[in-house]
Amino acid sequence: MRVIYVGIACLFLQACATVGSVDRPKSYHQGAVTNFNDGLVEGAAFGDDGKKINELLNYQVTLPEKNRIAILKLSTDNYWRFYSNDFTQLNDSLVQRLINKLRASDRVYDASFLPAMLVSEKRSLPVLREAAARFQADLLLAYRSSCQSYQKYRFIDPNESKSYCSIEAVLLDVRSGIIVKSVVSTEDFTTKKSSGDTNFSETIKKAELEAVAKALGNIANEVVAFMNNVPRITKP
Description:
Layout: E1 17-20, H1 50-58, E2 67-73, H2 85-103, E3 108-113, H3 125-134, E4 139-150, H4 152-156, E5 160-173, E6 178-192, H5 200-229
Parallel strand pairs: 2-3, 2-4
Antiparallel strand pairs: 1-6, 4-5, 5-6
């Protein structure tokens, strides 16, 4: 594979951050009935259904020793995937890095993208949960990404841009329908046009891909850390 050099200076500033939800302490479930033999109650989770809400709040998620993670990207930005072979390689590279990090966990036997044919246009939680179950995935990692440029810096120097990319992700336990982990990772960077760049827009997009790759790596690290601590399903 060709190594792609991008003519930019990427400076990751103080705005770069990854914030994940904190796992419940083991003491949270002490002395409480947290698992239900018949599973969680079906139906609406809100309104007057107090039993459903209490079950959701008290349920203790347990996972098998080895798990499959289905991955689903919710945003539609394809980052110029078909603009050139370079962009196709960059897209494929960042996806493969995410999968490799997840598969490296001792608690994960597979991490793969959820087949598109299983996902309907209505992407509600029950629909996504069923699609992941048909894929025999224990967990569903859904994420969306967005990148924005600060317009102020283009007025100061038309050949320089300051931007940020943010990824929001949730990890869903398919068995219970509970979101067991949420993570937001943001990478901030500056780009400068070089003489070898075709145009500045292409330069910015390549920099955005690198920022997205770093943010996805941060997401994967948070998921792996969670997997290492989540209780295992005990066999009867």
